[in-house]
Every structure is written in C-alpha cells, then in structure tokens.
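quick one before i forget lol
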Amino acid sequence: MDPTSVADQSLRRIFCDFLASSLLIILARQEQHFERQMQHYLDARKHAKTFRSHLQNQDQLEGGAKDDLLRKAKTLNIYDFEAAIRLKAWHDIGQLLEEIVNASWQLEGADMIKLSRWIRCLFQLTLPSKLDFTEHLLDQVQTLAGDIKKVPLT
C-alpha cells in the first residue's frame, strides 16, 4: 500500500474508535442492567485507548485537521474519565485528568476558568495519596501561570 492509503486508513480507524467510544458511553448511560452498563464502559475505554495510540502516529496533520483530532481526543479523555470513575479504575484517573488539562491548554489557550476547574479536580484527587504527582502538578501550574503572564490580553 502507498503511504497515502495507509494514512487514510489510520485516520478512518481513529474516527471509528472515536464514534465507537462515544456511542458506548451513550449506551452505558442509558443501560439499566448493571453488568451490561459496566461492559459498555469497559469497551468505551478500550476504544479510547486505541484512539490515543493511533493518534500518536498522526504527526503529518496540521491546521484544522490536527485541531479537530485534538478536540476529539479531549472529548474521549472526558468520556474515558467518566468510564474510569464508573468502573472504579482509580489508578487511571490522575493521568486522564492530566491529559484533559494538557488538551485544554493546547486547544483553548488561556481559558483559565475551564483550565482551573480541571486542575483543581486533578489536585483534589491526587493530594491525599500521590504527593510526588501533586508536587509535579504544582510545578506544571507554576509553569502555566508563567506562560499565561506572557500572553497578551485582547
């Protein structure tokens, strides 16, 4: 296969994973049977993970296509966060929130209201049990605050 076909197939796979994960979250929210609901959340997490792994191979995208994929990644991270909470996968929550914060920063820049909500949530989840990660988060917040001071106000 030529490189263009391979890239096209990879993008199609990414979009399929996005749609599958989104639909599985919708099904899980509507499901009354507990075990089926948990299975939908588990399957949604698998598709979100596959989406993220394929997204890392999309270096050639620029502009609107790249922004679109980053927005989809942020949406899937939020869905994955919901699924992780429902499945009580506490060990994954900190990393998911960090990815959401990073995606928010990349997409929305200095929208401090949204960014501060995600950072506060991440900080509250990690403070009691993961002091090293919490210190790392504080360093990131300090760096973000320094970067924001450099952004001209419009």
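fyi The chain has six helices and no strands.
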